[in-house]
């Protein structure tokens, strides 16, 4: 029998409730089965499902699907999920106007019990503030997010207190429906009543005037279970033909013969030996990686308490290995698995190979899903005698937009789920590559293992930094991780990024009905950043855009790097040890805006392991400009000599960290004495929360 809360246990609340019964003040509306009223989130919007880790499955009501087909499609995907998003959009509705400035102190999140003992988490009874507060005066509704990323597989209470005041300065009051809930038996209302009884003493002298209880989803389960499934698969290691290993000193040039369509190819010059100082050999090979996507390019949902089946289909995934010119230690070279940014140059790993080789590290990289052009792509290697060797380098791009062409990164983003399953499949391909390295890879066929499977690290940039957390959080073999320009959710990054806004407009316009609410066409969801004053919503259509973004983030959470960030060094998943973690980003990044890079660092509990490049402090040098978008600071070898100096310093920091055993941020400002003569890399005391552009 459920334990109910007596009136004696919550006397302050009851006094408030009794006075509210005859008062005419502003009420906190209460209808937990209505997402538009709430308080929301609420487990009243779920159904029991024993096949899920949380024991629940979402059951949000559908709108008129003739009028809102896109919303119905999104909700159908959400209703397969076993709980609420890890960064839900909180909603509290009032019967009349309230003072928005009182919302932050008046609404809190109370941590209830975790549903599993698989990982570390905040203790029961933790109180968390809200942030990113917005207020819609047309409906008297407050919106917000939790101050921090929530833990997965956990129950929470959203509590509204008398510290929220109406427009006259009086405390808001209890809705009679809320009184009925806590005073009458019922599975959901029992949980609400128990949460109030626990939290009320912590909140005094504030009184609780409304509450909801909700459960967060199992965000990492799909990757964990898919990784377990591939352990029984065939690795299918193969080396390239007619030749797999090339001495860098003998190479004259490298050309990617990129398939752009069924009959059209383009020759793309790749970085040559001058960009691979210290690299002795380049080796080419492939593995067979289980392909989890269906014909819709989506990974089908599997209940989170069930095992994931091994797919019947496997894809050929090519990899490139860059071996140092120095002799290998016994057991082979320590390995850095590298994931590059998007769109990349079709030659993943080359960009950092010299920096890693300088520290005795081999670099290995795969072609990500949706990258590398078409499947008939080849690589032409010209030696210094003029001889050409052509090897197959099948790309993984797809003509998604139907224009007959395959772009360098086409096939990764599809409507409704964005890059979620592109990230997940590429992460699983990377995990299969790690299996191959651990099994032993003899690249040149001399009977000696070339790559040390007992010393594997990961480095990723931008797109690759989104893959990295999915891989490292579940893979015990990875020791150290460097992520450059790792950001929060793809939705927030795309919306706020000048470089990504066009994509956000396209995805918003593709919905039925479209949600564009500005001329252009364009949109404005009146979003706010962390720690800003409450924003008063006044643009028609802004709330609908915010709700779309909430659904999109929720749908994509199982592939979001932010969801895996806590599991890198502080809240570890089963059988995975904490990682050595270094994060790099640049002030004023136009592609991965600073507030969301900081959100990742905060979720990873890694504020002390952030190295920030201060391009804003770099004095202008005639003839040697830096790229106006510092996003590429660690990989820009083309803008000017100054940008090359910065990139080499950033990469040296990566290599020093990955090759070392210390846990501090390596110092590299001495590499900037020319041309800057000042420190531009710093470990900040306070991480940036503003856009800085």
Description:
With 693 residues, the chain is an alpha/beta fold. The chain has 3 domains: 7-217, Immunoglobulin-like (Sandwich); 219-454, no CATH class; 476-488 and 560-693, no CATH class. The chain has 15 helices and 27 strands. Strands 12, 13, 16, 17, 18, 19, 22, 23, 25, 26 and 27 form an 11-stranded mixed sheet that branches. It has a 4-stranded mixed sheet with strand order 4-8-7-24. β20 (378-383) and β21 (388-392) form a beta hairpin. α6 (221-230) packs parallel to α8 and α8 (420-439) crosses α9. The radius of gyration is 27 Å and the shape is globular. Mean pLDDT is 94; it is low at 1-22.
Briefly summarize what is shown.
By secondary structure, this protein is α/β, with parallel strands linked by helices. It has three domains: 7-217, Immunoglobulin-like (Sandwich); 219-454, no CATH class; 476-488 and 560-693, no CATH class.
Number of domains: 3
Major sheet:
11 strands, mixed
Mean pLDDT: 94
The secondary-structure class comes to: alpha/beta
Distance between the termini: 57 Å
Helix content range: 10-25%
Q: How many strands appear in the DSSP assignment? A: 27
- Morphology: globular
What is the overall number of helices?
A: 15
Instruction: List segments where confidence is low: pLDDT < 50 over at least 5 consecutive residues.
Output: 1-22
**Roughly how many Å is the radius of gyration?**
27 Å
Proportion in β-strands:
15-25%
């Amino acid at each position: 029998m459920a334990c109910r809360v007596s009136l004696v246990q919550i006397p302050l609340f009851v006094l408030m409730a009794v006075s509210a019964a005859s008062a005419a003040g502003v009420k906190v509306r209460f209808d937990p089965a209505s997402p538009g009223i709430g308080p929301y989130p609420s487990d009243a919007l779920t159904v029991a499902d024993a096949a899920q880790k949380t024991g629940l499955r979402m059951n949000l009501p559908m709108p008129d699907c003739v009028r809102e087909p896109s919303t119905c499609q999104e909700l159908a995907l959400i209703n397969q999920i076993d709980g609420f998003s890890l960064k839900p959009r909180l909603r509290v509705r009032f019967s009349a106007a309230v003072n928005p400035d009182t919302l932050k102190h008046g609404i809190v999140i109370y941590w209830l019990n975790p549903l599993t003992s698989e990982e570390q988490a905040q203790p029961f009874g933790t109180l968390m503030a809200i942030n990113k507060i917005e207020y819609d005066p047309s409906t008297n509704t407050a919106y917000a997010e939790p101050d921090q990323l929530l833990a997965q597989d956990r129950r929470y209470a959203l509590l509204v207190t008398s510290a929220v005041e109406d427009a006259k300065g009086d405390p808001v009051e209890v809705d009679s429906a809320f009184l009925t809930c806590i005073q009458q038996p019922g599975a959901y209302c029992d949980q609400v009543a128990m949460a109030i009884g626990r939290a009320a003493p912590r909140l005094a002298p504030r009184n609780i005037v409304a509450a909801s209880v909700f459960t967060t989803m199992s965000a990492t389960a799909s990757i964990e279970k898919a990784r377990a499934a591939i352990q029984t698969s065939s690795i299918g290691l193969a080396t390239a033909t007619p030749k797999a290993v090339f001495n860098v000193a003998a190479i004259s040039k490298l050309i990617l013969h990129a398939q752009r369509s069924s009959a059209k190819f383009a020759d793309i010059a790749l970085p040559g030996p001058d960009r691979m100082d210290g690299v002795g050999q380049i080796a080419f090979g492939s593995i067979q990686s289980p392909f989890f996507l269906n014909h819709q390019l989506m990974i089908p949902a599997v209940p989170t308490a069930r095992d994931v089946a091994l797919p019947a289909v496997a894809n050929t995934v090519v990899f490139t290995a860059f071996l140092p010119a120095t002799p290998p230690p016994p057991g082979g070279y320590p390995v850095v698995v590298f994931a590059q940014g998007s769109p990349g140059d079709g030659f993943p790993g080359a960009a950092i190979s010299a920096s890693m080789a300088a520290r005795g590290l081999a670099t290995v990289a795969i072609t990500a899903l949706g990258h590398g052009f078409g499947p008939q792509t080849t690589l032409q290697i010209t030696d210094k005698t003029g001889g050409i060797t052509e090897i197959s380098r099948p790309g993984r791009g797809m003509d998604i937009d139907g224009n007959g062409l395959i772009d360098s990164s086409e096939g990764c983003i599809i409507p409704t789920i964005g890059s979620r399953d592109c990230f997940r499949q590429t992460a699983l391909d990377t995990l299969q590559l790690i299996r191959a390295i651990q099994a032993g890879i003899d690249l040149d066929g001399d009977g000696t293992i070339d790559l040390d499977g007992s010393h594997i690290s990961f480095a990723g940039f931008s797109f690759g930094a989104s893959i990295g957390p999915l891989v490292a959080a579940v893979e015990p073999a990875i020791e150290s991780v460097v992520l450059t320009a790792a950001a929060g959710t793809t939705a927030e990054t795309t919306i706020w990024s000048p470089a990504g806004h066009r994509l956000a407009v396209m995805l918003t316009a593709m919905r039925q009905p479209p949600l564009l609410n500005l001329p252009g066409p364009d949109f404005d969801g009146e979003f706010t950043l962390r720690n800003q004053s409450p924003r008063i919503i006044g643009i028609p259509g802004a709330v609908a855009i915010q709700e779309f973004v909430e659904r999109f983030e929720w749908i994509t959470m199982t592939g979001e790097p932010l969801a895996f960030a806590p599991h890198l060094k502080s809240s570890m998943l089963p059988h995975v040890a904490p990682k050595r973690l270094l994060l790099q980003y640049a002030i004023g990044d136009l592609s991965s805006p600073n507030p969301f890079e900081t959100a990742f660092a905060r979720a990873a509990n890694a504020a002390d392991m952030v190295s920030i490049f201060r391009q804003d402090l770099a004095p202008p040098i005639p003839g040697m400009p830096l790229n106006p978008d510092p996003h590429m600071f660690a990989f820009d070898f083309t803008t000017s000599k100054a940008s090359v100096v910065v990139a080499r310093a950033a990469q040296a920091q990566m290599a020093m960290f990955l090759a070392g055993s210390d846990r501090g941020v390596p110092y590299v400002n001495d590499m900037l004495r020319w041309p800057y003569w000042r420190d531009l890399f710093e470990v900040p005391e306070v991480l940036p929360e503003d856009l800085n552009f």
